[in-house]
């Protein structure tokens, strides 16, 4: 055996956006690139973990013997794939930017434009992280929060409501943080409300900080 700290551990990571079909050619989505989730997956695998990476549509790819990349499109598919693997994992990190809503009816044919306005009725998608929190047994469960106001309070609320062990707060107020870019500024909050704020860093460095925080809490 080698000395890799996550040897023998199984990790589930969700990453990327989800796409919710409107018709055969159109969808609702968001600008998540998947970078944070893929980086978290790579580093966990490099630390010896067996990783299931459930990713929505992204341009990213990863070739690593320790990573089982499961590609999905919709929130419902991400929900199903995540639950399928949840039972067997030690750590789950939900880094995906899941669409909160999906079109209630998916048109079978491409919608034709009319002179009138168009209304699309939306229904709620399941909250994957909330559901994993409800079913949590032995897993160490980590979520993300992207807030624009009352950041700490909202993140703490989410930590509690979703029954998490830790949450990574990502402030959009910080220059260079958040979607698309290659840097992030995070605050790591655990369920004892132990709070640690980090400098603006590249996403690989942020992923490394996140794993250090998680590892220090699962090897107690
Ligand atoms: O409640 P909110 O969407 O702000 O929470 C963000 C966290 O919840 C992220 O970890 C995200 O991956 C997760 N989430 C989820 N399923 C959803 C919505 C959010 O897993 N439908």
Characterize the structure shown.
- This protein has helices at 35-46, 75-86, 128-134, 151-161, 203-218; strands at 10-15, 20-23, 26-28, 50-55, 67-71, 91-94, 101-103, 122-124, 140-147, 166-171, 183-184, 186-190, 195-197, 201-202.
- It is of the alpha/beta class.
- It has an eight-stranded mixed beta sheet with strand order 5-4-1-6-9-10-12-13, sandwiched between helices. It has a two-stranded antiparallel sheet with strand order 2-3.
- β12 and β13 (195-197) form a beta hairpin.
- α1 (35-46) crosses α5.
- The two termini are 21 Å apart.
- The model has no long low-confidence stretch (mean pLDDT 95).
- Cytidine-5'-monophosphate is lined by residues 14, 75, 94, 96, 98, 100, 125, 127-129, 143-145, 158.
SSE layout and pairing:
Elements: E1 10-15, E2 20-23, E3 26-28, H1 35-46, E4 50-55, E5 67-71, H2 75-86, E6 91-94, E7 101-103, E8 122-124, H3 128-134, E9 140-147, H4 151-161, E10 166-171, E11 183-184, E12 186-190, E13 195-197, E14 201-202, H5 203-218
Helix pairs in contact: 1-5
Cytidine-5'-monophosphate binds at residues 14, 75, 94, 96, 98, 100, 125, 127-129, 143-145, 158.
Pathway: Cofactor biosynthesis; coenzyme A biosynthesis; CoA from (R)-pantothenate: step 3/5; Cofactor biosynthesis; coenzyme A biosynthesis; CoA from (R)-pantothenate: step 2/5
Region (Phosphopantothenate--cysteine ligase): 11-220
Domain DNA/pantothenate metabolism flavoprotein C-terminal: 6-215
Ligand set: cytidine-5'-monophosphate
Strand order of the largest sheet: 5-4-1-6-9-10-12-13
Low-confidence stretches: none
Number of strands: 14
Largest sheet: 8 strands, mixed
Structural class per helix/strand content? alpha/beta
Q: Give the topology string: H per helix, E per strand.
A: EEEHEEHEEEHEHEEEEEH
Q: Count the helices. How many? A: 5
% residues in beta strands: 25-35%
Helix percent reads 25-40%
Tell me the radius of gyration: 18 Å
Mean pLDDT: 95
The dominant shape is globular
Terminal CA distance? 21 Å
């Amino acid at each position: 055996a080698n000395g890799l700290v996550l040897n023998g551990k199984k990790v589930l990571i969700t990453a990327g956006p989800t796409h919710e079909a409107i018709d055969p050619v159109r969808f609702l989505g968001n600008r998540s690139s998947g970078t944070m989730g893929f980086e978290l997956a790579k580093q966990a695998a490099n630390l010896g973990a067996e990783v299931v990476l459930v990713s929505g549509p992204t341009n990213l790819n990863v070739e690593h013997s320790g990573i089982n990349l499961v590609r999905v499109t919709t929130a419902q598919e991400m929900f199903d794939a995540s639950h399928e693997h949840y039972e067997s994992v030690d750590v789950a990190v939900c880094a995906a930017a899941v669409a909160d809503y999906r079109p209630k009816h998916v048109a079978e044919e491409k919608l034709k434009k009319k002179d009138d306005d168009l209304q699309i009725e939306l229904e709620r998608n399941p909250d994957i992280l909330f559901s994993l929190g409800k079913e949590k047994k032995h897993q160490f469960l980590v979520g993300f929060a992207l807030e624009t106001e009352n950041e700490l309070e909202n993140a703490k609320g989410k930590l509690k409501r979703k029954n998490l062990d830790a949450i990574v707060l990502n402030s959009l107020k910080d220059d260079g943080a958040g979607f698309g870019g290659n840097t992030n500024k995070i605050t790591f909050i655990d369920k004892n409300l132990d709070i640690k704020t980090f400098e603006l860093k590249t996403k690989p460095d942020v992923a490394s900080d996140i794993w250090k925080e998680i590892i220090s809490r699962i090897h107690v």
